[in-house]
Amino acid sequence: MIKSVTFSGLESGPRLLVLGAVHGNEKCGTVGILRIIAEIETGTIGIARGQVTFVPVANPDAFSIGKRFVERNLNRYLVPTNNPTCYEAKLGNILCPLLASADVLLDIHSYTVGGEAFIFVGPPNPRERAFAASLGPHTLLTGWGDAYAATGRKVKSADDEESTGTTEYARRFGAIAVTIECGQHDDVAAIEVAYTSIRNALRHLAMTTETEAITPSTVPRVVTVTQVIYRDSEGTFPKRWKHLDPVTKGEIMACQADGEPIRAPDEGFIILPHAECELQHEWFYFGVER
Ligand SMILES: [Zn+2]
What was the pLDDT predicted at 213? Predict the structure, then answer.
């Protein structure tokens, strides 16, 4: 069972879908969504235009046990299936029609390593970038597809849906779609980031009765991922990297087990470092500001 709550304004407008806890251990979106629902129900916020649908907990069983997923990552292979063979595939059959009918998707997550909040955006799309820029966090991250393609490690066939998650599926039907990473899973500040992003989304889309100005949107920093670095040996980091730590050209980002350093090819950023990840998995990413 999945709970969804929809509010429809009397005037026509966009259909916004807001998802929480696609990963069951990422609860900031759920808390932020429930707070907004309560404010709408008590009249603090009015929905004047369009339709907003909230799914506070997209993966309920994972949420109840505090785990990322039950059988597999819900944010992969997210396409409808005729004979769903696992729990998350069944959830996908409920979520996909919601994603297909959305004009705008805000998918709210948190992340393990911690650091500032940021937003994943897709290939350049002015409407999507403007929406992302309105949400609050200052950094937009993009370029994953090209960076992975450059590794040559994941050869995709046409029917391989592994990389289809909420945003990819929604964009197929013309939606603008972003994933916001509000901070570390247990950071209470992430809840405020989540809540504020929903308020800002409603304002940016002019869906509420609020007359005050939209939160002044800053020009966000766009960081493009240019390299995926896999952990091919028991290597180490020279220091305890945080997400979006800056590095200078030539700076040692990591050392392989044989001592061979991996240096920054340019001035840029360490992205989503995972020091102790399993061998052959993504160790960290490198990106540049463009
Ligand atoms: Zn997540």
Answer: 52
